[in-house]
Every structure is written in structure tokens, then in C-alpha cells.
Amino acid sequence: MKFKGIIFDLDGTLVNSLEDISDAMNTVLTNLNYPTHTYDTYQYFIGSGLRNLVSKALPVTNNSDEQIEICFECMINEYREICTLKTKPYDGIVELLKNLTSQNIKMAVFSNKADELTKKIASEIFPNHFDMAVGLSTEELKKPNPFEALEISKKWNLTTEEILFVGDSDIDMQTANNANMFAVGVSWGYRTEQELKNSGAKLVINNALELIEIL
């Protein structure tokens, strides 16, 4: 089977956005006189959407639905202003995307980050590489729900077996398998190689350019 398309996760896969996300949330926590968290801690908060991250970052004693919603809006406002300040592509990603573009491989981004921010980061950091960038528009469509991945395959007019799904988290591997796509984990992101394999990764790569060998 020749793979003709690749769906990439964003945070922890294409870009290291840990510091911008953490800084934005810590600003919200500081303004409320709540304890802040280290980058290492935030590493395990990322992956299930920013609303979920807000819930995990708030103190247990101040974690009502109302408080989460208020802080989520504040966090989004902070993050929107700095979301490309420290965020950078991982080593080899730009070279990889240029190579794939030259081969006419279809590429898309599918993230649990808010749709507006997913599109902003993908277009600003990786202009002219992706056919589409899809973020979270409603909680019901959050990964590991494969709906958006399947919609991408339809727009490409490709079978799911012709698509690689590349990500750094257990949620990405679950999404890939739920969509019947080939699950590729990346070891440079926010989870360990063993976590990826346990979550259904068919292959784990340690360097971005290894993806070219798979193709």
C-alpha cells in the first residue's frame, strides 16, 4: 500500500508549543493568586484540548464548571496573543514538509487545540504546506473521535488505509486506530515511546525524516 496522505497532530508533533501554552495558563493562575505549574507538569496536561488543560491546572478547590469556563476564556485571550512567541518547529520538520510537498503528498493538521488557534499557528509557522488545518470546534468532536480525520480522507478522496496519522500522544494513536489509519508515533513529543506503543502505535519514529522512509 502506497500512502498518499498524512494527517499530523500539531502540539508535540510538528511544533513545541509547551512554553507558550504554559505561560498563558500561568498568567491566568497568577492573576487569580492560584499556584502555577512547571513546564514539566504542563507536558502532561496537553493533548485533550485547552479546556481540559485549564481544568487540570486549576486548584481542586476552585474547579467548578463555571470557574473552568471563565478561566478558559481568559486563557484563550492570553494564549492568542503569544501563541507563536516561543513556539517553534521540531528539528527536521520544515525539511520534512518541504520534501513531502515536493512529492505531492497530501497533508493536513488535526489538533485538539481550538480551531482558530490551530489555523493561526499552522499558517504562520508552516505557510503553503497544508491542504487544511482542523482544530477543535466542539467538545463532541475532540480526538480520539475520528470524525474530522475521516472528513479529511473524504475531501482528499483517499481511503483511510492510504493515510498516515502522525502524533505524539496516546490520544493521537487512539484516533488513528479509530479511523483505521496507520498510526505513527513520534518520540520527541510529550509522551514516551512505551506510552505510544501501548496506545496502538504501529511504528514510533525518533527523527522527522524517518517518515520519508515509510513513504
Which terms would index this structure?
DNA polymerase, domain 1, six-stranded parallel β-sheet, Rossmann fold, alpha/beta, globular, 16% strand
Itemize the secondary structure elements and their pairings.
Layout: E1 5-8, E2 15-16, H1 18-31, H2 39-42, H3 50-57, H4 65-82, E3 88-89, H5 93-102, E4 106-114, H6 115-125, E5 132-136, H7 147-156, E6 163-167, H8 170-178, E7 182-186, H9 193-198, E8 203-205, H10 210-214
Parallel strand pairs: 1-4, 1-6, 4-5, 6-7, 7-8
Antiparallel strand pairs: 2-3
Helix pairs in contact: 1-4, 3-4
Summarize the entry for a quick read:
The protein has 215 residues and is α/β, with parallel strands linked by helices. The protein has 10 helices and 8 strands. Helix 6 links the parallel strand 4 and strand 5.
Overall description:
Strand 4, helix 6 (115-125) and strand 5 form a beta-alpha-beta unit. Helix content is 44%, strand content 16%. The protein is globular, with a radius of gyration of 17 Å. With 215 residues, the chain is an alpha/beta fold. The strands form 2 sheets. A 6-stranded parallel beta sheet has the order 5-4-1-6-7-8, with helices on both faces. A two-stranded antiparallel sheet has the order 2-3. The chain has 10 helices and 8 strands. The mean pLDDT is 95.
